[in-house]
Amino acid sequence: MANSLSGMVGDYLFEQRIRSDRVSLETLAARVAPLMAESDAVALHDQLLAAGGELGGRILLLDQNGKVQLDSYGELYGNRLQYPEVTNILVKGQNVDYGVHELDTGASLDTSNLLFMRRSNGAWVGYCTAGIVHASDIIGVLLLVSPVQEMMQNLYQLQDQMMLIFVVIAVLALLCSLVFSQVITNPIGGLMRGIQRMSKGDFSARVRVRGSGEMKHLAQAFNSMSEKLETLDQSRNQFVSNASHELKTPLATMKIMIESLIYQPDMDKELRTEFMGDINSEIDRLSAIVSDLLTLVQMDSQNVKLTRENLSIAQMVKENAHRLQPIADQKGQEIILTLSDPCDIYADKSKLNQVIYNLMENAVKYTQANGQVKVTLQRIGRDAKLTVTDNGPGIPKENLPHIFDRFYRVDKARSREKGGTGLGLSIVHQLVLLHGGEIYVESEEGKGASFIVELPLHQG
């Protein structure tokens, strides 16, 4: 680039110099043509001396054979000059020509291509020639020899400066590219390392969020994805662990009872019958756990389809209260219904019934003897709000965020005694979400709990 630029500048300078010398020499050739035709040596000599001073160079007059007839320096009389610039006039018939030569060696410089200009410490001169024409014939040649050493030195200096400037620019560009490449490649490298860790199962991988723009958003998106995958992996591991534990407990109980029956063949008949009844209960519990697990798996895989129909939530609440009344009567409990609106809804009857029954059954189950279970249904705008409240032991504040987690129990021992699988509320939560609603719980320890379901009332 430095050579190209200096070559362009050199071309411009030489073009200006050539144009100036050619115009001046052509004008002089037109003036001396009549004098040379008349062989007026004195007038020619005077003209050439005066022109040499004006043009700042040495002027030579050559005849048709290339011999010097006049020299403003008075040195080359009678010498034949075979410069290409002279030959081009006399042989090729050009009107004007120009060339640059090194004075000591006679080497010429190609002024049409200064891109890779040869360096020299010698003196450089310019040879400008113009034909002397009389009666349409070339009768001689004017040769102007002018120094161009200053211009050549300026070109050398310009080329050196341009080389230096471009070297500095190239170094700075290289340093900037290295810095920018590090700025760009470091985040990408960190992201790649994070992806490699994740591909090996390490979902705790995070990348450093820095900079701005797309790389920042990409790092944030990766960290968000990694966090979700880690949470999902932990949830899956916890689920497998809990499921294994829940299945193992009834199996261990049955194993003990069956071994007792095997190794005590003379066991009392009533005790044997009791053991068989307990085994049957544990099998029922296992069946319930497996059934609930299959339900959750179906909902997780999003294969559950809702068979919607027009129905009344209030009517469903009444039916479930009627089903649970015998259990409540055994504990001396009272089920109080406050149904201010029928809340007609377009929903899946069996699944919505499962939600209502599960919540009301839990309230009956965890309310102490002679307690109350209150069920309230009201219409708020376009939503139905169902509230099931008990006056049982309540839920500690630290347990509230996990109440809908799978296999989560506030009091594990008492929950198992009451026959729960730990999956009921998880299923309720999923079914409410499938209907586009939401469910949450409000509770204070020792003051009971309220489960609130809000469902959009889509009409068929």
Features:
alpha+beta; Beta-Lactamase; Helix Hairpins; Heat Shock Protein 90; six-stranded antiparallel beta sheet; five-stranded mixed beta sheet; 53% helix
Would you kindly provide a brief summary of this structure?
This protein is α+β, with helices and mostly antiparallel strands and about 450 residues long. It is about 55% helix and about 20% strand. Strand 1 (about 60) and strand 2 (about 70) form a beta hairpin.
What topology does this entry show?
Layout (H helix, E strand, L loop, with lengths): L1 H36 L3 H15 L2 E5 L5 E4 L12 H7 L5 E7 L5 E2 L14 E11 L2 E11 L1 H51 L14 H50 L5 H32 L7 E5 H18 L3 E6 L4 E5 H18 L5 E9 L2 E8 L21 H6 L6 H11 L3 E6 L5 E8 L4
Parallel strand pairs: 8-10
Antiparallel strand pairs: 1-2, 1-6, 3-4, 3-5, 5-6, 7-9, 10-11, 11-13, 12-13
Write structural notes for this entry.
The chain is of the alpha+beta class. It has three domains: 148 residues, Beta-Lactamase (2-Layer Sandwich), CATH 3.30.450.20; 87 residues, Signal transduction histidine kinase, dimerisation/phosphotransfer (DHp) domain (Helix Hairpins), CATH 1.10.287.130; 149 residues, Heat Shock Protein 90 (2-Layer Sandwich), CATH 3.30.565.10. Strands 2-1-6-5-3-4 form a six-stranded antiparallel beta sheet, sandwiched between helices. Strands 8-10-11-13-12 form a five-stranded mixed beta sheet, with helices on one face. Helix 1 packs antiparallel against helix 2 and helix 4 runs parallel beside helix 5. It is rod-shaped, with a radius of gyration of 54 Å. About 1% of the residues have low confidence.
